[in-house]
Amino acid sequence: MSSLAIVVILSYIVGSIPTSIIVTKLAKGVDIRKYGSGNAGGTNVIRVLGWKAGVAVIGFDIFKGYVATMLVTKLMFGPVPFTNITPFEDITVVRIIAGCAAILGHIWTLFGGFRGGKGIATAGGVLLGLATIEVLVSIAIFSIVFAIFRYVSLGSIISALSFPLTMFFRHNIFKAELQGYNTLIFFSIGIALLIVFTHRANIKRLLEGTEHRLARVHKFHKK
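^ that's the sequence the OP posted. Answer follows.
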């Protein structure tokens, strides 16, 4: 087995750690996917267990993405087993691949019947090591949208879409030198579209006016 395959498998496993499921099982002996919105993510943990537990879950999910991208990839040795046509060094390409594996692991977790979260926090951890400024802008946009509308889903969707847009404007309008822009922009678009896809049910509820605002924390309301 090649070292790249090992990195991809380990990154998927790291991403698959079902943080929200573990926390709610330990705290209350319940499956988070049977309460609140039914989503195995930090926002639903906030609804079910409160802010402290939810923020801890979100923080760890971010950490998973960062670990896969920046630490698991240290196991890579030798050249990548394909022709690298990108402007990135091989290790950066490996980090992008590992990050994608971690995000997929979070969404389709190996340890939860392939029913995980929506990937926004883990994607944030992956991108934190690859495009720090764009991530910080996306966080700021999320905070503004959430503060105004109180919809976590809306903030997540808009912040995800803002990531490739920020990169595009920085490179093309503000003439910032972004290494590997012509490769990274497509990766960022792909991540944004994946996040939108995982929020498709939320988008439907937003359009119907039935999406729940996170104005108050409601505990242990069944789906």
